[in-house]
Design brief:
Helices cover about 45% and strands about 20% of the residues. The chain contains nine helices and ten strands. Helix 5 packs antiparallel against helix 6. Bound molecules: FE2/S2 (inorganic) cluster.
Length: about 290
């Protein structure tokens, strides 16, 4: 089956450079409003282990979908109005979470994301206008604006799906590591070849690993950042009560002891490899591999 022509249009949006000045302006505004690292982590969904935004949008989408159905049922005007109001109010926190995620994406993703956000803002505006009309007793105009809002939010939702499933924004970019890494112990490098206290990249079974030697102890994580595949060996070491690596692309922080996220925007931890030293040779094994 051939994809819809609409898909070509969306793909063209990814390379629409004319959006970039707007992207830069909105990004600056988002970063100046959502400033505190702890708040950014909460909005990204670090405590949950996955992004908050897709979860948050369930409430306005559910409310607005129900309102669209009720608007077709005689005698349900009041209930439809309440649901539209609930949708408009709950759209605000999910939009803030979405903008926070969006501020730390790749350029192509940000271009599509900006249009996705503009569609959602336009839909919210239509719903607010619908509420105003309803409050003035103009039910038919209110319903028409509500249906326009529904069509707009559905189009914006299409772009949201494109962002997640085609452009892989918000997904775990390390998820495939345990599926691709072979079971068992594998040679990494002679211990003597590893530079003390330096982040290094080593290839094992065709996969890039981040390695840090500290004395006789060797920490090994997948080198591909779970946020958007940044090369962690190009990042920097940071002490947060334990050795951590800071991703060079968007600053996610991962514990080198456990692979756990210590700071977003990443929400998924890095696969952490077990290590052992056999006759001076460092070997690695990934729990759960295969
Ligand atoms: S790629 Fe974005 S924080 Fe690593």
């Amino acid at each position: 089956m051939k994809p819809l022509p609409l898909l070509n249009l969306v793909s063209r949006l990814e390379d629409s450079l004319w959006l970039d000045p707007l992207v830069a302006g909105v990004k600056g505004t988002v970063n100046s409003i959502v400033r505190f690292p702890w708040l950014r982590d909460v909005l990204h969904g670090v405590p949950l282990g996955h992004p908050v935004h897709p979860l948050g949008v369930q409430i306005p989408m559910g409310a607005w979908t129900s309102a669209a159905i009720l608007d077709a049922v005689p005698g349900s005007d009041r209930a439809a109005g309440i649901l539209i109001g609930v949708g408009a109010v709950t759209a605000v926190p999910s939009a803030i979470a979405g903008f926070t995620d969006w501020s730390e994406l790749h350029e192509q993703q940000q271009r599509v994301g900006l249009v996705h956000a503009a569609g959602n803002l336009a839909a919210t505006g239509l719903y607010v206008a619908s509420l105003v009309e309803r409050s003035r007793g103009r039910q038919q105009r209110g319903k028409l604006l509500g249906y326009l809002g529904f069509a707009t939010v559905a189009a914006a939702g299409f772009l949201g799906g494109h962002l997640t499933y085609r452009l892989a924004a918000g997904v775990n970019h390390s998820e495939d590591v345990p599926h691709r890494f072979p079971v068992g112990w594998h040679a990494l490098a002679p211990l003597d070849e590893l530079v003390e206290g330096k982040l290094e990249r080593k290839m094992v079974a065709g996969m890039p690993l981040l390695v840090l030697r500290r004395g006789e102890r060797v920490h090994v994580l997948s080198d591909v950042c779970s946020h958007l595949s940044g090369p962690l060996h190009e990042g920097k070491l940071e002490e947060r009560g334990e050795p951590c690596v800071v991703c060079p692309w968007h600053g996610s922080v991962f514990s080198l002891h456990s692979g756990e996220v210590m700071g977003g925007p990443a929400t998924a931890g890095q696969p952490r490899f077990s290590t052992r030293i056999e006759n001076g040779l460092v070997e690695v094994s990934l729990p759960g591999a295969g």
